[in-house]
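task queued by scheduler; priority normal; single chain, no ligands, no partner chains; default sampling; output format set to structure tokens
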Amino acid sequence: MAGDDEVNHRDRAWAGALTALQSPPVFNGSGITPYVELDRDQWASLAKATPLPMTEQELERISGLGDPIDLAEVDTIYRPLSRLLNLYVAGTGELHKVTSTFLGEQASRTPFVIGVAGSVAVGKSTTARVLREMLARWPDTPRVELVTTDGFLYPNAVLEERGLMARKGFPESYDRRALLRFVAEVKSGAAEVRAPKYDHLTYDILTDDEVVVHRPDVLIVEGLNVLQPARLDDEGRSALAVSDFFDFSIYVDAETPDIKRWYTDRFLSFRHGAFSDPDSFFARFAVVSDEKAVELAGQFWDSINAPNLVENILPTRGRANLVLTKGPDHAVTKVRLRKL
């Protein structure tokens, strides 16, 4: 493990590099942007003061199907991002200390919660898994857990009963109260919190399995709609949103035509993988031709995923603390970090 002098040197180098990139305000026609915008090369320069490289074997284990990512991308984008998040965790810890001193209490710290949002097929799951791996390498955040909001989808039987199967993934297809209660309990410091588990093979909630979170240092919550603002309750009163409990949030962004192409490519890959399992919900698509598969993927995208993106997901992008913008090849081309 590095000595204190080396760690302090890295901290000063990292902070200095980030400060140097605080370019003058950029006017966008409607005022000054609340984000610091860095291109790929500027962001990559921050990695020079950041340790913790990853191996090919580790990356292969956590990368997602249809979302190509290599060690260069991890080094360039996710290594400095892990350091930034590490600094945010440390800063929150210091704030906890002074607050506890002010209140005259000895309460233990609660988990630092990170939300990761974005469209279907944009690669947010891989982003969340890479961050979990990288953050767990820092000595002050060894326990990092990841929960996806898929487990909070209503079971298929409930969706069928409510006529929502064609809107699976839309906000109303989730048990939002259960998700809110889960994150609130984690953030309250509960010793153990349980969440439902989703099976991507059967496309349904597992009735005999669950995710158990044991007060981690960091919890990553990944899902389509995790940055949705609070909605009024049945009596017109303001309610809480899941994002109210986030300490930091990330939105994975890309041009819509690129995401649609990635979705189609992933659908074709699944035909020769997950769909070929007779227990798969989508087994019937394994035998169709490539042409028919492309047609079906386009129909699913245009009727379900595109409307959800436009109506519910994309409007939450401006609520994120950090936006990762991808180019056509999945590589991140730009990073926008909200100013403090």
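post-processing summary
- The first helix runs from residue 4 to 20.
- The chain has a mean pLDDT of 85.
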